[in-house]
Amino acid sequence: MRIPKPNPIWFFLSPALFLIIVFYVVPLFFSIYISFTPLQNWNLARYLDQISLENYERLFYMAMNDPDVTKVVKTTIVFVTITLIFNVLGGLILALSMFFMDESLSLPYRLIWILPRMTPIAVYSLIWYYFFLGDESGTLNSLLLRLGVIEKPLAWGNSPELLPESAWAIIILVNGLVGVSFGMVVFYSALRSLPREHVIAARVEGASAFQMTRYVLVPQLKWHIIYVTVWQLLSLITTYAHIFLLVQWGAIDKWWGSPWALYVFNTAFTTSDQGFAAAAAVILVVIGGILGILVLRLMGFKKLMQEPKGEL
Description:
By secondary structure, the chain is an all-alpha fold. It has helices spanning 8-35, 44-47, 54-65, 67-99, 103-118, 121-131, 139-147, 165-193, 196-204, 209-217, 222-238, 241-248, 260-270, 274-298, 301-305.
């Protein structure tokens, strides 16, 4: 009897699969179960056997009728949409700009753009807190007062006259500068790995930088554009760390400056209603999955996965 040889693939995949199952799959299914219970104060023994749709009914009602939750929904849509466009297009433009520069000359600029991602979250958020501080000591207020643009300090993230646009602008700027560096690194690495013959041939044919970008470089970045877009979309839907600190420090309005992920976090850890928070988190996961699949279809991921037609 011939004994089959063990497949080495599973040997290498098993550590990663174990971590994914323990830290992602199990918590996901546990969160889904909790979302159907009235769990409060983390009292698992008391509430885990009480199953109902009450949390989802409350969530739908509040999203339609509670003005604060409505603000969170609007903020999430604006924040994710604009920041995603900023991150993908900004990263692509930066990468193309660096590509047309000498590599040694572009190095300092790449380091500058990657600093927000390298800076610790607390330090980075503190910089923006003092920049948008609502008194004379705030960097932006101090600068505009000296230039005579404003007559008195403005509470940029909390002033009723500036909301909601000012709060949206702050969270988009703060998170956008972190995300754009990710796109820049991915796109620049992809551009540097392209065959040099393509670039040389385009230059010999007299192609301008714009023509080379449109007809030579960008078409070869389809995989990378899809990857960055989907990654940034799912990341933005679930991000809250920088925004949490700015809200806690009073730099931006609590509701107009809170996306859905931060609403879930605050509900789970600053109130006793963990069942309701789990339901809100499940909705976030479902929406993220649907949007991820939709973006993949719209960007032609299935077409890229097909084998090329014709004889080889």
